[in-house]
Amino acid sequence: MKIEGSGVIVAGGGSGLGNVTAQALRAAGARVGVLDMKQGAWDGPFAEADVADADSIERAFDALAPATGQLRVLLNTTGAGHSGLSAGPGRKVTAEGFRRVLDVNTLGSFLLAQAAAERMIPSAADDQGERGVIINTSSIVAQEGQIGTAAYAAAKGGIDAMTLPLAREFARYGIRVLTIAPGIYETPMFSNAKGPMVDWLREQVQFPDRPGHASEFAEAVLHLVHNRMFNGTTFRIDGAYRVPPGRSDWWVD
């Protein structure tokens, strides 16, 4: 998919990986709009939306349409967490918290993909028959969740699981569906975190021996958008990071 001139919506582009990638896509010539709960650091076209609510997504897409034009690329970097022990002393995971993580991460990813596809399907295909690219963001925790991440791992695992079925369904329209599963990245949320678990997480990255930079995530997104043969799978970008089990006592106050 040609990036220059293409309409792009970045869900979660107000901060973190989404914001840096939205800026990189704009610098590459895309017509970028952002939807998020807060505009944050994004200084371009913006619409507020709760990705767990289909009507909210529809309103945001419609509001951004004049700025983006025909939608060609959706990047979803939204997410919510709910961590802690699931049973026994120090139990913190609740049904309400688990449900909200599923609503934002899993249901939200599906609703965004659905809304994007509905807008891509009626459009004219390019000279290769392509109409659009949908990229969700999972996590390596979906495959190797440490102690205390049951809710988050389940929610991100749902994103991985829907990738191939949606890619197969949307293939007849020339729409690709992909998922990126990052390791740990130097976003403000992670960089400002402290404690033994954070130090332990940093030590797991093999090479480069550091957390990833948001610009490296953005580079991966631009390449996936450009290369038509990437479709229907989840790509790890983690510096050979593999998550060990962790420790239960990190979650006990």
Architecture overview:
- With 253 residues, the protein is an alpha/beta fold.
- It is 41% helix and 15% strand.
- The protein has eight helices and seven strands.
- A seven-stranded parallel sheet has the order 3-2-1-4-5-6-7, sandwiched between helices.
- α2 runs parallel beside α3.
- It is globular and about 55 Å long.
- The model has no long low-confidence stretch (mean pLDDT 92).
The chain-level structural class is alpha/beta
Point out poorly predicted stretches: none
Q: Number of helical segments?
A: 8
Helix content: 40-55%
Number of strands: 7
Q: Looking across the biggest beta sheet, what order are the strands in? A: 3-2-1-4-5-6-7
Distance between the termini: 49 Å
Strand content: 15-25%
- Spatial extent as radius of gyration: 18 Å
Quick one: biggest sheet? 7 strands, parallel
- Per the principal axes of the C-alpha atoms, what is the gross shape? globular
Mean pLDDT: 92
Task: Spell the H/E element sequence.
Answer: EHEEHEHEHHEHHHE
